[in-house]
Amino acid sequence: MCLHRLICGQFEFVDSDRAEQFFRSGHTNNWAVLVCTSRFWFNYRHVANTLSVYRSVKRLGIPDSHIVLMLADDMACNPRNPKPATVFSHKNMELNVYGDDVEVDYRSYEVTVENFLRVLTGRIPPSTPRSKRLLSDDRSNILIYMTGHGGNGFLKFQDSEEITNVELADAFEQMWQKRRYNELLFIIDTCQGASMYERFYSPNIMALASSQVGEDSLSHQPDLGIGVHLMDRYTFYVLEFLEEIHPASQTNMNDLFQVCPKSLCVSTPGHRTDLFQRAPQNVLITDFFGSVRKVEITTETLSLDRDVAGFESKFPEEELATEPLKYAEQLPVAQIIHQKPKQKDWHPPGGFILGLWALIIMVFFKTYGIKHMKHVF
Amino acid sequence: GVGTASLALPPASLEAPGSVQQLPVPGRDSPVARAHRGLTLPTVSHYRLFPKALGRLVAALGVRELHLALTQGFWRTRYWGQPPLQAPAGAELWVWFQPTVTDVDKAWKELSNILSGIFCASLNFIDSTNTVIPTASFKPLGLANGTDHHLLRYAVLPREVVCTENLTPWKKLLPCGSKAGLAVLLKAERLFHSSYHSQAVHIRPICRDASCLAVSWELRQTLTVVFDFFSSGQGKKDWSLFKMFSRTLTDTCPLASQSKVYVDISPKNKEKELLEVSPAPTSVHEAIVQGDKKTYAVYDLLSPSLFNTSRSLNVQLKWKRPQDTEMPIPTLHAQRYVGGYGLQTGEICTLIYNTHPYRAFPVILLETVPWYLRLYVHTLTIITKGKENKPSYIHYQPAQDRRRPHLLEMLIQLPANSVTKITIQFERALLKWTEYPPDPNHGFYVGSSVLSALVPSVTAMKDMDVEQSPLFASLFPSSDGSSYFVRLYTEPLLVNLPTPDFSMPYNVICLTCTVVAVCYGSFYNLLTRTFHVEEPSRGGLAKRLANVIRKLRGVPPL
User: Fold this and answer.
1) Is the ipTM of this complex over 0.85?
2) Predicted TM-score (pTM) of this structure
3) Cystine design at B101: which of B97, B146, B374, B544 (Cβ 3.0–4.6 Å)?
4) Phi, psi of B490 (to 5 degrees)
C-alpha cells in the first residue's frame, strides 16, 4: 500500500534502532477535551478561545462524539450579546466560531474542578450520558486545551474554586496508569500558564503554554460593537496557524512552537517536550488536532441478503384492544374535588425515637427499682 | 408589529410491522401483564422516522409520556395574544411512567441524565429538590387507562439557557434533519434573534386510526418563535419568510407525508381585504383553533403546482391599510410578582384575569417554590372582587430542607369578568456557604406557576372539526367542543437571598489567629511568668566564675 511504502521510505533515513519510529504514531483514535473556565460577560474571549479550537478540531475531522466541550458560561445567547447565537473571534465580526452545529457537553454550572477531573480519570457516576464521557483507550491521542484566569500554579474555575498544577499532574498520572491515553497534548492559555505544566511526571505528555511564570497573557483586540475583547493573543495566532492546516498537511509541532513570538504575543510562550518519546519534528499537527485514520482498501466483497420476508415473521403480532381507547380528561373537576388524600405509609420509629424511649425507661427503672416492673406489665 | 411563526412538524407514527429495517425488539410484556386489562403499548422497534435515541430511551425506562420544553424568553400575552402552546422559561420536563416501573424515582433520575446528554442541557440538575408530583394538573395528553399520579414527575429548571447547542440535537431528531423540507428555515442566527424561542419534544401514545383500537407512538417536535420587527429595526409590519429566516423554502422532505405552511388571515372585526398574501395559497382553510374560528391560507408543499415556476417559495404578507397594534385580550391570562422589601421576608402575588363577560370557569394553579423560600401557608389569601374565594381543592406539600420543594395546588373558581389575587408570604433562608452558585448575587429563580383551565370557546367545535384541525392545534385532546383546554405559565421570579461575603472565611482565620497569638498569648505569658529580683553582680572574677558554675549545676548563686 502507498502508506506502507511511505513509512518504509522514511524508515531508511532515520536511525534503524528506533523501532518505535516505524509507525509515525501509534494512535488509532483522537479525543479532545476543551475547557473554558471563566464566567461573566467580560470573559467573552475565553469562550471564543475554546470555540476556535473546537472549530479547528472539528474541521480537521474529530467528531462531536469524541470531543468533550466544557463552557462555563453562555456568551452566544447572553442578553448582552448584540448578535445572538454568535461568538466572534475577529473584530468586525468576520468569523463566527460558534457556528450552527455545536454541541456543548458541560455547560454553565457543570464546569467544576470535580467534573473536569472525573472526565479525565473516567471516575464518573454510572448514569452519565456517553457524550459527557472521555471514552479513550490506550491508543488514543488526546488534546486538552484549557483557558481562563490563572496564576502561579493554579487555574481558576468560575471565580469560585481553583485547580492546582499538582492536582492536574496527578490526574494525568492516573490516566497513564489506567492507560487512558497514548499521547497527550496539553495547551493552556492563561496568565503564568507555564506553571501548570511544571509538575507533570507521566510519560508521553507534550505541553504548551501562552506565557511563562511571572508574565501575563494578554488579550488581542476589542470589538467596539460587542464591547469586549474577542480573543486572547496566543490563541488568536494559534487559530490563524490552524486555519492553514488541512487533514493531509505535514506540518509538525516545531511550527506550532514558533507560532506566537514575543513581538506579537508580548508574553513568551513556552513548551515542554522532555516527557514525550518522539521528537517534536516528527509529530504532526494532525496527530492531535485532526482525526486522520489509516484506510485499508480491500477487494473482498460482502453480499447483503435482499430477502426481507424472513423479518416479517419474526415480528410478533400485536394484540388489538377490544373496545376503543380514549384520551384522559384534562380537567376532571368532580374527580379532583373528591380525590381521597394519599394514605401516609407507616414507617417504624427511627433510631432517635427508639433511643429516647430506651433512655426514659432506663432512667425510670434505675430510679424506682426493678421491682416496679410488674406494675407496668 | 410582530410576525409569529409557529411550526408544528408532522408527527412520525409507527408504520405497520413489516418494514425493511429490523432491530432487536426489547423485552415484551410478560404473559402475566398481558392477561390484565390494561393499555399495552407497542414497543418501538423500527426507526425509519422515529429517532432511535428516543425510541430506545422510551422502551428501556418504561416511559408512557414525555414532554420536554426548552424556552428562552417569556410570552407576553397582552401584546401577542393567546399562545398556541406555552412553555415556562428555562427547561421543563414532565413524564408519565408506565405502571410496570417499580422504582419511579430511579427511572426519573436516569431519564433526566440521558436527556441531558441528548439535548446538551443541564437536565442532570433535576433531582429531588426541584421535582414534584402534582396531584391534579398534568393529566396525560395521550391515551390513558387510569391515572395514578405516583407515576408522574414534574420538574422545571428556570435558570437553564437555551442556545444553538440545544437546537442542533433537536434538528438532528427530524427525519430529514435540517437539510430538506421546512426545517431548512431553522438557522440559529435568526431564530435566537427573537423575543421568544421555545422548542419542545412531546412523546405520547395515540390512536392509530379513527376506530382507536390500536396504539401508536407519536413524537411531536414544536418550535415557537416570536420575531419582533420593531426591535430588529424594520418598522413595518409586513413580513416574509426571507425576512424572518433569511432563506426560502426549496423542496420538501422525501419522507414527509404532509408538509404545509399555514398563514393566519382571519379577519378582525369582520373586515375583509385588509391583507394580502403572496404567492397565492393552494387552499384556504377554516378551522376552530383555541375556541375561535380562524381562517388560514394553506401552502401545501407537496402539491406540484407550488414549485413549478421557481424552486423557491417565499411567503409574504402585506397589510393594505395601517393596522392598530391591539391584539384581542385573551379570556384567561395571569401574572406573578414578588412583593415586599428587604432580605428577610417577601410575598408572592399572583393575579389571574378572567375577561369573559358572563362565563365562570375553574382553573388549577400549581406552584413549586424551592425550599429556601419558606412559605407560610397560613398567610395564603385568595381575593376575588373584594371578597375571599375559597378553593374547591387544595393540595399542599411543605418543603423539607435540601430535599423537597414546596408544592401548592389549588382549584379555584374564577367568576366572570374578574381579577383574582393570590398572595402568600415567605421567609428567606440562609444557605450554607458551599451551596451558593458561583454567581450568587444574580439571585435565585423560582419556577413559573402553571395554570390549567378549560376556557369556554367563542365558537363551539364539533366532532368533525376535530378530525380536520391543523396539526399544531391538536396536542390537547378535547372532550367537549364548548370549551378548550389551555395551559398557561406565569413569569419566573428572581429572588435575592442574603448572600455572605465569600472572602470572610479567610478574613476570619487571619483575624482569629492574630487575636489568639497576640492577646491570649500575652495574657497567658503574664499569668504564668514568674518574676524574681536579680541582684547586681558584685565581687571579683572568682566569684563570678563560681556563680557561673553554680548556675550550670542548677544551684542558687552566691
Assistant:
1) no
2) 0.83
3) B97
4) -95, 180
